[in-house]
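Q: A reviewer asked whether we had any structural model of the full assembly, not just the individual parts. We don't, so I'm hoping you can provide one. Inputs are below.
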Amino acid sequence: MLSRKQVKHIHSLRQKKFREIHRQFLAEGSKLVTEILESQYKVVTVYALADWLNRNENILHSKNIPFTEISKGEMDRITALSSPSPVLVIAEIPATPIIPATAIHDIILVLDDIKDPGNLGTIIRIADWFGIESIICSENTVDLYNPKVIQATMGSVARVSVAYLNLPEFLSSLDPVIKIYGTFPEGENIYSVKLDPKGIILIGSESSGISPEVVSKVTDKISIPSYATVTVRDHAESLNASIATAIVCSEFRRRKR
Amino acid sequence: MLSRKQVKHIHSLRQKKFREIHRQFLAEGSKLVTEILESQYKVVTVYALADWLNRNENILHSKNIPFTEISKGEMDRITALSSPSPVLVIAEIPATPIIPATAIHDIILVLDDIKDPGNLGTIIRIADWFGIESIICSENTVDLYNPKVIQATMGSVARVSVAYLNLPEFLSSLDPVIKIYGTFPEGENIYSVKLDPKGIILIGSESSGISPEVVSKVTDKISIPSYATVTVRDHAESLNASIATAIVCSEFRRRKR
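A: Here is a predicted structure for the entire assembly that you could use as a starting point for your response.
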């Protein structure tokens, strides 16, 4: 049974302001919730249909997580998913993660004002796939705990460390031997250029690319060649930010084997 | 000035049933509409704000395209975009495209029940970037003329040929020398396996991968290696369909240079 106050609290967590006040975020759906339950995240409470609770009582008991059984009608009042979900959880937002010291021996993804929640979630999934442990976002990048970002990560959020920093300051603080790669139409062909297996991969925003304050920090301009036979006016803009990230990460990892 | 009948007609085109009756589809936003106007598509009519019409009167006159000036308030009644768009067009759905004969000398992307409009649109953009001229979709793949697909292509829909076919029949009809590549967790590492520069790249659905009737047609199983340090139960599922498409196409094209 769901109280009016609980419904209101859940809806409030769709807004960044209230996520920051309560230091809590939402996650929905069987697969994502299972990943969250098995991760380091501290789950505050679980709202679920009877079926789901029956199947998952072991983990709830072993982790001592409070839960509330709700009806399908009640779930309809709190879910943001278009297809019915059997479970919604509230979890604690952890303290800002510390970039692991190992990360400097590997690739770090740095996102300059990614605005689309689906893109950020997908980029976190790509990082997880390719074993990239750290992502650093500019302060204007969409909030990690936006429910659409959390859903798009498909659980990878539990395995990749994401921090928000002032990018020009962060990039200036790096050891000058660290390469900072950015994609530009005039950059060198990523398939043939030398790539350092460790370094920063900078991804620009969907609408305006890498911002001027950050462009000056790039040490190596690279490009993904287009094989289009027809040259189009603005063809260079036409790979989505998460697609470009996938291709660049794939090429770095290919060299690593 | 917009009539009630026009508003109703525009809204009806958000449903596949009415798109099939009228053989028309919608496109919105400056960039996409410009691409559509410059393409082979026959534009039926344009609804736009005065500003946009002033900037684009040359192309409308030269192509003899009817247009209606509307107010911002009227645009709000017909747009499906969250940020304000200055222009919406209705265009004709062309007759089912014929796969160009050249395509058999190159890569063809074959999509097995891609359901998410954003994924289909993004895959069309990837094909455009990499100069892949043809995409063949299973009959249960999301409709190309779904407004969300059209928007996600960012104009690439004007440059890539997309056909809907019975996949098992189509794949059976191919010359047996044509390789049919599909991604599977147990497939050979795409970075090291031999890849024929022409062939079929088969992409499975978001939820269930390549369907059983189609799996049997695959001649070469390939995989995108994960570099994750933590092995997760269902890690193999965790690349989005459009991300996997991008990585596979990138690797085929890299070999081509």
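A: Points you may want to mention in the reply: The longest strand of chain A covers residues 180-189. The longest helix of chain A spans residues 241-256.
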